[in-house]
Specification:
This protein is α/β, with parallel strands linked by helices. The protein folds into four domains: about 5-40 and about 225-250; about 45-135, Alpha-Beta Plaits, CATH 3.30.70; about 150-205; about 260-460, no CATH class. Helix content is about 50%, strand content about 15%. It has 15 helices and ten strands. Strand 7, helix 13 and strand 8 (about 375-380) form a beta-alpha-beta unit. The protein is rod-shaped, with a radius of gyration of 47 Å. The relative contact order is 0.11. It comes from Streptomyces venezuelae. InterPro entries: Bact_polysacc_biosynth/exp, LPS_length_determ_N. It is a multi-pass membrane protein. It is found in: Cell membrane.
């Protein structure tokens, strides 16, 4: 097919002609999204707790702390404190997340099937994270006892006082041993002072680990994505886009012949003309539930065929049929009977064949010697396994069909069936649907009458 299938006009044609089918598929997609939200993605809620890290922190240090907050050491302790029987520590780790934000804040999020559980999870993980960080830096959050750097500082101060007492008690400058003792004590005092300075610096750095939970996490008021509404909208959009892409792909792979020269070449004959058939639109009501469903969804009509053009009038359409009959008479002046072959299921071609039968029967030159139109008999041929009646009184076969419905292989099968029946294809007539006007000449038989005439000729097998 041509590049027309990828144009926006083609997508618009699909939306106009298959809007009912697309609407049904969109509804089905929304229902599938709803089912997925119930079975695969039940409603989930996410709560976030904030932990403040005092001091100055580099970006990589904050990222490290975020990883610590979701580590197994923290999550396992939180799972033990929560005591949820339906969720173990491994599943809980997948429901906890942490990220560093501006202002030295670590946001710890917890996801659960209810707002209360989500809030409880995020708060517990935040508390366990703070406790775990305090234990890493040597701090304590349990009681008020002095441990770690503070106790060491007091011991150093007591040692300094003892050194001063020993220095005062030593004999200042009287003996060599006294001088050496005082020198050693002063060196020890200097070493202790230097150690205390380093301890103070280390304490300042470690003071950054004094993390604080910034209050209780707010209870979530809405579902975490993907929500049920998002799943339904995504399913509807997915089905709609898939349907449009499917139509475009089918049109790209379509091998049905659309032009008159291609059709004539496939039948190995020449084109005698094109005729117009008034489009009846929705006049015919289908029989059976399946046909009614196809009719409702628009599947009984092709979407990729051009919209029917408005024809001139009834007289103009009759002129086309007369010209075809005249070409048949000029092409085969001695032929008195011809077989009109119509593919089965081609309603437009069947109605065109009936109109040709009516025109050939109303030949104004029927009394002229050997100059009348050939008598036509219509037969429908199944395209899947075409069989044409054997040659009898007919002098050839005229193939009438509509464009855009048959492939080259199917038309070649019809041509071979005509050859097997002893009929030479004398020409091809292509029928097209048009929008007819309401006016009708009084001398023209109604369309239904011509269709009935064609059906009677096909059923009886006799000349029309």
């Amino acid at each position: 097919m041509s590049d027309e299938t990828i144009r926006l006009a083609t997508v618009g044609r699909i939306l106009r002609r298959r809007w009912r089918l697309l609407a049904v598929l969109t509804l089905v997609g929304a229902l599938v999204g709803y089912g997925a939200s119930v079975v695969l993605f039940p409603p989930r809620y996410t709560a976030s707790a904030s932990v403040l890290l005092p001091g100055q922190w580099e970006e990589r240090e904050l990222l490290t702390q975020a990883q610590v907050a979701t580590s197994s050491s923290v999550v396992d302790r939180a799972a033990a404190e929560l005591g949820w029987k339906d969720v173990d520590a491994t599943e809980l780790k997948d429901k906890v997340g942490a990220k560093a934000t501006d202002g030295n804040i670590i946001k710890i999020s917890g996801t659960a099937e209810s707002p209360e559980r989500a809030q409880e999870l995020s708060d517990r993980v935040a508390q366990e994270f703070v406790s775990f960080s305090a234990r890493l830096t040597g701090g304590s959050t349990d009681d008020g006892t002095e441990t770690g750097p503070e106790a060491l500082r007091k011991k150093v101060e007591a040692t300094n006082r003892r050194i001063s007492e020993l220095a005062d008690s030593a004999d200042p400058g009287r003996t060599v041993e006294g001088v050496q003792a005082r020198t050693s004590l002063e060196k020890l005092r200097a070493s202790l002072e230097e150690a205390m300075k380093k301890l103070d610096q280390a304490e300042t750095v470690s003071g950054k680990a004094g993390m604080v939970v910034m209050g209780k996490s707010p209870k979530p008021t809405g579902e975490a994505p993907p929500t049920r509404t998002q799943l339904m909208a995504g399913g509807a959009l997915l089905f709609l886009v898939s349907a449009v892409i499917g139509h475009l792909a089918a049109a790209r792979t379509n091998r049905r012949l659309r032009t008159e020269p291609e059709i004539a070449a496939a039948l190995r004959s020449e084109l005698l003309g094109t005729v117009d058939v008034p489009d009846e639109g929705r006049a015919h009501r289908p029989d059976g539930p399946r046909a009614m469903v196809r009719h409702f969804l628009g599947l009984d009509t092709r979407w990729d065929t051009p919209a029917p053009q408005r024809s001139a009038d009834e007289a103009g359409r009759r002129i086309r049929y007369r010209r075809v009959c005249t070409r048949l008479r000029n092409k085969m002046p001695a032929a008195r009977r011809l077989l009109v072959v119509v593919p089965e299921g081609d309603e437009v071609a069947h109605r065109a064949a009936g109109q040709l039968v009516a025109e050939s029967a109303s030949d104004p030159s029927v009394n002229a010697a050997n100059r009348g139109y050939p008598a036509l008999r219509v037969v429908e041929v199944p395209v899947s396994r075409p069989v044409v009646p054997d040659s009898g009184a007919e002098s050839g076969a005229l193939v009438v069909l509509s464009a855009g419905n048959w492939t080259a292989a199917e038309l070649a099968g019809i041509a071979e069936a005509c050859a097997d029946g002893g009929h030479e294809i004398v020409g091809v007539v292509v029928a097209g649907a048009v929008r007819a006007r309401e006016d009708r000449p009084a001398d023209q038989p109604p369309e239904k009458a011509t269709l009935a005439l064609a059906v009677r000729g096909n059923a009886t097998g006799g000349p029309a």
